[in-house]
Write a structure and sequence with these properties.
single chain; mainly alpha; 2 helices; about 60% helix; membrane; transmembrane; transmembrane helix
Length: about 80
């Protein structure tokens, strides 16, 4: 039957060579996929991190001072 275990002598290459070839193939396919994505990609992402406004920057500074004061009180 074709699903029976094969003897080591029946293989054309040693098992470690087969494993290394599979690992090399997986690495090559990963690099190929990355290269294709880099070339074609999904377009620009307009939902990225935007710079803070002056009001938001001031608010964050106030929160930082409040938190530092609370930590100083706690000890």
């Amino acid at each position: 039957h074709h699903l029976l275990k094969r003897a080591e002598e029946d293989l054309l290459m040693p098992k470690p060579v087969i494993v290394l070839l599979i690992m090399f193939g997986a690495c090559a396919l990963t690099c190929l996929g990355y290269a294709m994505h880099k070339l074609i990609g999904f377009g620009t992402d307009d939902n990225g991190v935007k710079p803070m406004s002056q009001a938001q920057y001031e608010y964050m500074a106030e929160v930082k001072v409040r938190n530092l004061e609370a930590l100083a009180r706690e000890g």
